Structure formats: structure tokens, C-alpha cells
Fold:
Amino acid sequence: MNKLDSELVRGQLEQLGYQFTSDSDRAGVIIFNTCSVRQHAEDKVISKIGQFHRRHQDDPELILAVIGCMAQRLGRELLNTYRQVDIVCGPGQLHRLGLLIEQARQNRRGNRLLAIDEPGEGSGKNDELEEFDTSRSFVDTGQPFQAFLRIMRGCNNFCSYCIVPYVRGPERSRPMNHILAEARRLVAAGVKEITLLGQAVNKYRFRDNDRTLQLADVLETLNEIEGLKRLRFVTNYPSHFDDRIFRAMADLKSVCPYLHICAQSGSNRVLRAMNRRYSVEEYLELIERARDLVPGITVAGDFIVGFPGETDRDFQATAELMKKVRFKNCFIFKYSPRPGTTAETRLPDDIPLEVKKSRNWELLALQNEIAFEDSQRFIGQNVEILVEGYSKKSHLNAVAKNDDQAPDSKTISDPQLVGRTGGDHIVVFNGPKTLIGQIINVTVNKASALTLFAESGVII
Ligand code: SAH
Ligand code: SF4
Structure:
């Protein structure tokens, strides 16, 4: 969601005549797009802001903006604590960012600017936010064949640990005709793969005259777009799930058989304390249904370890769930108390950091083992991948020539490239750079837990 917001902001500012540079020394405006989901993410931003204190003092023209969830969460506190911050702009106010920057430049930082949602404001200005999304201008992200498309804003689930509903406001589904128009424009601009975004994307509901459109309707509609090769949707909440979504995954040519569906814990007691509204048994049933209905489906998920009160037994139950589901990959996080959330206000953060760390490692090791075993079945198989670009870890591929020297992949004729299957498996192979952005077939000849390796491919 943040990547998409950054892209939209960039498009908005480019339309106003700004140019972008990744070299902050040359920039007249510096923007931090921030995340609040864990303390660690916020700490990194605070440290970055600190680095600009001096330069901001020395250069009266420099404008520094903090945007995104941390801006919404901390608001005026950011302005009060950090003199070098000129603009604080929450995710619900990003449509105004261009104006705010102009204002700050014109009055030479005279008054520092705060633009955040007031409590309850979230749904009132849907039209402006819609315009922010629909007026999207295409910017060079380096991956012109892949794009995110927001279909929902905000979240109403209020999982007890989570800051998202507080900073991104109430849940709203975007109008289908806007989604379709945006998808068509993306495809016309050369996009082959669209990832639909929402915090609980399977809860998409949009009232269109006398019909209520759901995620399956979005998938069916976008699937009709000529030239769109792949459609994904993240992330899913393990309830409000109907079989139409699975049928869309099985039947529609562009919908990828990949389901990111967060479990968070394998203990019913912990799930209740997290205010997740499903049981472990229901989660398992759902995965079983998915596997019955969608051939070759891969499942990914998120887990939190060290939630308040998580006993060894609760943790073992999480490991059990992992073993039963056999995820393709998992994101595992150490619980981080977020100020103002129910968990933070009502439950002591009582699991020591060392225990959180060791549980994190244990789950990672288990998931690694599972992924390694499961990926072996790909050896000898032909898989279809979208080639995304140069592989960053060229030393990994045993079939690469000049392996040890890690050649500069951009200059040799058959550099190491990386692509992804519809099921989201990463595939590394050697091939000409003209394959980037193409969908090709490759034969897998080696498999590790996180990566498949292949012979160079043929365009299909
Ligand atoms: N909307 C998505 C999740 C968005 S946040 C969903 O519900 O599927 C991404 C992930 O961060 C969550 O799935 C959760 O595992 C993790 N997370 C959220 N809040 C956290 C916290 N306070 N501490 C640690 N991890 C957290
Ligand atoms: Fe956070 Fe839960 Fe909403 Fe996901 S569903 S964003 S974890 S409150």
C-alpha cells in the first residue's frame, strides 16, 4: 500500500513539474513515506530524519516532509519534536501534498504544515481520495509491466495489535467502474500483472444499483481486459471468504493461484485475544477448500510471535498449524506494541525479547524446512514465469557461468535474471535481458527453500 502511495505521490508531483532523484544531496524536497505497523519501522524513520537536522539548518530552501501512517499517528508531535520537519501529511491527505509543498516553498517554511485526518473524518472525503487514485499518472518505477491497484481503503477489523484502522481510517471499497478504468489504463500503458490491494481484500463490497459487487466480480471483470496476463490480490482475511473467489482462481485465465491469507497464530486462545474472528479449525478448513477447488494453489501467510500471554503451548500450536498448512512462504513478526491499540492499552507486553526472537527463529527454520521439501517437486518441471529483472543474488545460481566472480549482470550477454511463477515462486536463470517483462517457460533444475533455479527459457 505504501509503495502504491509513493507512486501516486510521485505522479502527482511530476505533473507539477518536479523531478525525482535518489540522491538526497541534490534534492530540494525530501519526502519520507512511513509505516507505523511496528516500532522498528518508525525507529528507522526517526533516525533518518535525525540525519537531516544539520542540512536543514544550513539550507533554508530545503523542505522536509513526513507522509504516511507515522505522520497520521504522531501528527503535531512530529512537528514539535523535530524542527527539521516542515510538512506532516497522513495517508488520507496525500491528494493535498503537492499544494502543501508549494505552500511551504512559497512562504519559505514560514509556518509548518500539518495535514492529517481528524477522528471520524475518514469516509467524508472519499471523492478527493478517489481522484487521487484515478488521476494516477504513470511513472517510471523500473517495473513498467507490474502495477498495484487499490480496490479498498482502510480497515474495520481492529485486530487488537494493529495500528492500521487508526491510521488508514475506516474500510471503504472503491467503485468498480473506477477500478476497471484504472486497470484498463494500466494495461494500455504496458502492464501485464496487476496486484489488487486491500487490508482484507476478500471483504470487497460495492453497492452498484441493486447489486452488491464482491471480489469475485472484480476478478471476473478485470479478467476480460485484453493484454492483462496476471491478476493477484492481497491480503486476505480468513473469514468472509466465499467459494466464488476460489472458482475465479481456478477458472479465470489471468487470476494467479496464489493466496496470501494471514493466520497470525495457531492458538485459538491467542486468536481470540488478537480479536481475529476465526478459529484454527476454520482456518484449516478454508485452506483445505482452497486446495480442493484451485489446482496447484500456493498459500502464504503472516504470523506474530510473542503476543501478550503467548505460552510455549500456544507457540507450539502455531508451529503445528505451520506444519499442517505447509505454506509456500511466511512472514513472521515479533509482536510490537502499538500505542492506542487494544492490545497495547489492555495487555502487558510480557514476552521477553529473547523469547520473541527465539520463537521467530524457530518458526523461520521450520518454514524453511517445509519450503525446501515442497520446492523439490519442481525439479524437472516446466514453469511459466514473468521475468521481473536482474537477479540481485547472482552467486546463488549453481548453473551460472563465472559464478564465483559474481559478474556485473547488466553488462554480460546472458545475465542472471529473476522471475516469478503464478504461484509466486521465485525463479532464477540466465538469459538475455530482452526477456525482462516477458512471460516465458523455463525448466527447473535445482530448488532451494526460497528460490528455484532454471535453464534459460523460451518466450511463450
Ligand atoms: N491487512 C493485513 C495485514 C497488514 S499489516 C492482514 O490483516 O492480512 C501486515 C502484517 O504485520 C500483519 O499481518 C501482522 O502479521 C503484522 N503486524 C501488524 N501489527 C503488528 C504488531 N503490532 N506487531 C507485530 N506484527 C504486526
Ligand atoms: Fe490490521 Fe487486522 Fe486490519 Fe489486517 S485486518 S490491517 S491486521 S486490523
In short: Confidence is low (pLDDT under 50) at residues 397-407.
